[in-house]
Design a protein that fits this description.
This protein has about 350 residues and is of the alpha+beta class. Helix content is about 30%, strand content about 20%. It has two domains: about 90 residues, no CATH class; about 200 residues, no CATH class. The N terminus is likely disordered. Keywords: Membrane, Transmembrane, Transmembrane helix.
């Protein structure tokens, strides 16, 4: 199915993001205050009280209360006060080091830009999760998005247009990109990438002669028409140029373009004609149509804890800015091996590390 994008995500923080931030803030404060309490205990100074307050009924603030004098009412020596006061800062440094060790090593939207990535390595070593070499898996879709029904959590996305989200060819070329990097770069690109070939479809030339007006190709009329997507093709005449390509408003679903019955092509010579004389043109979606094809293979059975399984390949046609897909669909390249592990646990840990730091 193809959709017309009405609006992108506004950028407002979700409830999950707010709760994760508050949780990380609480952990960091508890660790900081624990430094003061442990330093005081090492100096045999009793703890008067501890607890937390809520500012504006939302922001937590943890504290420990310590005496300013020793048991015999003698003021604490300056070195002792300094050790207790600096213990919280020391704990902060230790926490930052731990986060750097655990956090992902690549630049991620939901992680740190530098780190050893031990969470990924330890989890893989323990058999908790694995890293995908082909495709990304949907973890969440923005509420209200038309994609929510078609990309449930657990769906594996393998293609964006004709670009495969796989690492074998990249590794052979010495690249260190991940499938998440491919996902982000493909959706942030404003033009076709040069490292893959965008193929067309062999369509009957008569489709274009029967649709001479092609209102859907007129950007001033595109919001007023429901005639389909703007396709263009070069009929292969010697004088034809890109500007002289014929255009037509066609429905990709009605033409069944995602089936094996419609051949893919590089140019008109790739199509030819049939035995009954039907001539075919190599047609592509016009670049101004802002269309991205999302190739998926099902939900992988992760919603109900079943073993991963591939389903029939299908394609979702999205009409709108590519960035809309990036903003509305959250994906991961780390999937759990066990059904009891939440699908988005690893990405949540990465966000937690970034909030703590």
């Amino acid at each position: 199915m193809y959709f017309r994008c009405l609006s992108d995500l506004t950028g407002t923080a979700t409830l999950g993001t707010i709760l994760s931030t508050l949780f990380a803030l609480g952990v960091a404060q508890i660790w900081h205050e624990a430094g003061h309490a442990l330093a005081a205990a090492a100096e045999q100074i009793p703890l008067l009280s501890c607890g937390f307050k809520l500012y504006f009924f939302v922001l937590p603030a943890f504290y420990v209360e310590l005496p300013t004098v020793a048991a015999d009412d003698v003021p604490l020596p300056p070195p002792t006060r300094l050790r207790i006061a600096s213990a919280g800062v020391w704990h902060n440094l230790v926490l930052a080091l731990a986060v750097w060790i655990l956090a992902g090593g690549e630049a991620r939207d939901a992680g740190l830009e530098a780190g050893l990535g031990m969470s990924r390595k330890v989890g893989e070593g323990l058999g908790l999760w694995e890293t995908l070499d082909d495709g990304v898996v949907v973890t969440a879709v923005s509420a209200g998005s038309v994609l929510a029904h078609h990309l449930p959590p657990g769906t594996r996305i393998t293609h964006l247009d004709d670009r495969e989200l796989e690492l074998d060819s990249l590794r052979a070329a010495g690249s260190t990109l991940s499938t998440i990097d491919l996902w982000q770069r493909s959706l942030l690109s404003t033009r076709a990438a040069g490292d893959y070939t965008s193929l067309g479809w062999c369509l009957d030339e008569a489709l274009f002669s029967r649709h001479p007006t092609a209102d859907c190709c007129d950007r001033s009329k595109v919001e007023k028409t429901t005639a389909g997507l703007c396709f263009e093709a070069n009929l292969g005449t010697p004088s034809a140029s890109r500007e002289e390509n014929v255009r037509a408003c066609l429905d990709p679903l009605a033409l069944d373009l995602d089936s094996d019955r419609v051949a893919r092509c590089v140019d008109a010579a790739s199509c030819g004609a049939t035995s009954d004389g039907t001539r075919f043109a190599c047609a592509r979606v016009n670049g101004n149509a802002q269309v991205v094809r999302i190739g998926v293979v099902g939900s992988e059975g992760m919603e109900d804890g079943d073993a991963p399984r591939r389903r029939r390949q299908r394609t979702i046609w999205w009409q709108g800015p590519k960035s809309g897909v990036l903003h509305q669909v959250a994906v991961t390249d780390v999937i759990p091996r066990l059904g009891i592990i939440p699908l988005g646990l690893f990405d949540w840990l990465e966000r937690f590390y970034s909030y703590v730091a």
